[in-house]
Amino acid sequence: MYTRHKILRILSNNDKIDREKPFFKKTYKGQRTIHLAKIEADGMKVLKIKKEDWAKGLEKIGESCRLLGPLKDGEFHNFKELGRGELPDFNFQNTRLSPKSIVYPQSEKMFDYTLDQNDPDHDILKEAEKNYSSQVVMGIRPCDAKAFSLVKLNFDSPEYKDIYWLKRFESTTLVGLACHNPCSSCFCTSAGTGPFHSEALDMLLVQEQDRFLAQILTEKGEALAKIAGWTIEAGSNAQEQITTMKESAEGRITSFISGENLKNKSAMEIYEEPYWEDVSFSCINCGTCTYLCPTCWCFDVQDETCGNCGIRIRNWDSCMYPLFSLHGSGHNPRGQKLQRVRQRFMHKLKYFLDKYDEGIQCVGCGRCVRYCPVNIDIRRVCELMNRSEACPVTI
Amino acid sequence: MQNPYLPYPVRISEIITETEDKNLKTFKYVFINPEDEEKFDYKAGQFAELSIAGKGEIPIGIASSPVEKGFLKFTVNKVGLVSTHLHNMKVGDVMGIRGPLGTWYPWDTMEGKNVVIIGGGFAFTTLRSSIVYMLANRDRFKEIHVIYGARTPGMLLYVDELKEWEKRDDIHMHITVDATDDPDWKYNKGFVPTITDQKAPHGNDDTYAIICGPPIMIKFTQPVLEKLNYAHDHIIMSLENRMKCGIGICGHCNIGRHFVCKDGPVFTLNQLNNMPREY
Questions:
Q1: Contacts of A112 (CB under 8 A, 6+ apart)
Q2: Which H or E run includes B238?
Q3: Closest Cα of chain A to B55: distance in Å?
Q4: In percent, how much of chain A has pLDDT > 90?
Q5: Helix axes A142-155, A163-170, angle to 10 degrees
């Protein structure tokens, strides 16, 4: 029996629930039967949420957790904290900015310090007070959720734990929203995810005319449904319905990234290819791609002082900027634009793959393709990197 | 969960101006909380982040040696915001140290072998740590050679120790300067690659070279070592790159899939041959 206390504990993950162990393992095409059997064996639930229960449920969640969802902000949708009674606006393809800031804010305080020599602790950094209370993200796209599990490989290494990222990730419940109409520039299915991909999610919502089907994927998802009062189980054919919709959505993805040869090619060979000149030619190093990317995680650390008080903060950084790698001596190992553009693609498509063997550091959300001011396209670059034979440079 | 970004509070206990241009100072630190010293368990070749509240952090090689207890020592060149501020600090001032970070010279592999230390300019810091360590464990190593060069006699670091080491018969010192008009200069004159060519023993399975110095010195010393028959996995180097976190997370210091801060700073030439030259 779930007590309210236990539910809240699960949502804030104080019991150290392992999100990597959902009730069923990730599935691929051809494994569907095993997938369904596994769900039944685990007592996997699909709930149905009627329109009137939706708003009521959100209100209940909002009473004990911080609730975030997509809202229209000017011209575009972005994730925002939902006020009391405010409903997330699911009339969107995807948010313009990736939701990475929900777990990894663009600017984040790390430490406080005082320079007041009369204070016994002057010049000593002190942990900044943080709020890691439970937050629930409603309507994150499956690709963006998967990005968290890729980024986690960086922030949660066997040797070092980034406590800021991890604590916030652990206290976050991700409720996904399946994509029925992917963008023309989405290529998620060839980037290790998909419009209904449930890895990294706690619950997946599938929108039907006047209701949601909600697939419960983890203990956190289950706890959330309890707290929201969503208890009506969908019919026995709900899972099949979801599978049909999933296949139809996947069929609507028309854009792909091809990286099947990347793993076996030598990094140094790709690094020394002549096409980087062509790829980087039009780049203006604006950093839009790294800013929008759900899997870009680099950061800078700065101290800011006002009077005697100050904070050490970290800010998103970008490998597109020359300062990123500039030495104190003035030497810069990536001083040229070509070197920086190459670094970004090599990191995403080769270094990451070699390091973790967990696919490429890209979920196919297509943001960098859509918003690059000079139309540099990661799919085309990946194709060049993936070529099995050397080709002459083409412009 | 321990926060890997939180420095240990330390106090500056001594400041030594090392060189005639006054751009290099050695800072000696003591831990404000004595129990932190035990947690800061390091090996020669590692580095740490020196942290000054309000200025930031800089990654600096540890110049003290694990066999020296009760303090840490760092020799810092005045270059940017943090190091310039540090040069203006005084004995007794409080700051922070975060570490130890990165890999160290391969002491287990080099046990029972000949070691040739080749250093130039102010990159002699972790080499000093290594020499002190080897001399304290002298029976664990065969022949030890040190080739150390600076522009002028006044630019050599740790002069008193160099003199002491010169007197010993269990370490072969080859100190050199690029040029000097000092008639009393009784050591070598010439660039490090030249002196290496003249003084370093021939390479074999039992001999390792550790090189640390400016890029130009490394560039011209490498062919000399190859000529002397050193295999690339017996040439050990220490790199540097711009870094922030020091623990392989922030993304700044990568060379290919490796981070200088976590997978390095110590690499063999063999490893570097298969990595982009982004350092």
A1: A125, A126, A127, A128, A309, A310, A311
A2: strand B235-238
A3: 6
A4: 79
A5: 140
Helices A4-12 and A219-228, packing angle to 10 deg: 130
For residue A151, the surrounding DSSP H or E stretch is helix A142-155
Determine the residue of chain A that is closest to B53 in CA distance.
A123
Which of B15, B112, B105, B114 has the alpha carbon at shortest distance from B66? B105
How high is the pLDDT of residue A35? 36
Q: How far is CA A335 from CA A319, A324, A331, A351, in A?
A: 11, 9, 8, 20
A300-322 pLDDT per residue, tens: 999 999 999 999 999 999 999 99
- Total-model pTM: 0.90
What is the bridge-based pairing of β-strands A203-207 and A211-216?
Answer: antiparallel
CA A51 to chain centre: 28
Whether omega for the bond prior to residue B100 falls within 30 degrees of 0, making it cis, is yes
The three-class DSSP label of residue B66 is coil
Angstrom distance (rounded) from CA B96 to CA B50: 6
Q: Is the pLDDT of residue A29 over 80?
A: no
Q: Which residues of A touch B7 (CB under 8 A)?
A: 125
Q: Which residues of A touch B51 (CB under 8 A)?
A: 125
Q: Predicted confidence band at A16 (pLDDT cuts at 50, 70, 90)?
A: very low
Q: Where are the alpha helices (DSSP H) in B137-204?
A: 159-167, 192-199
Taking an 8 Å cut-off on Cβ atoms, the answer to whether A113 and B54 are in contact is yes
Choose among A338, A339, A335, A305: nearest CA to A322: A335
User: Closest residue of B to A167, CA-based?
Assistant: B1
The residue among A126, A154, A295, A298 with the most chain B CBs within 10 A of its CB, best to mutate, is A298
Chain centroid offset of residue A90 CA:
18
Q: Domains along chain B?
A: 8-101 (2.40.30.10), 107-238 (3.40.50.80)
Alpha carbons B155 and B20: distance in angstroms, whole number: 6
SS3 B75: strand
Report which residue type is found at B240.
E
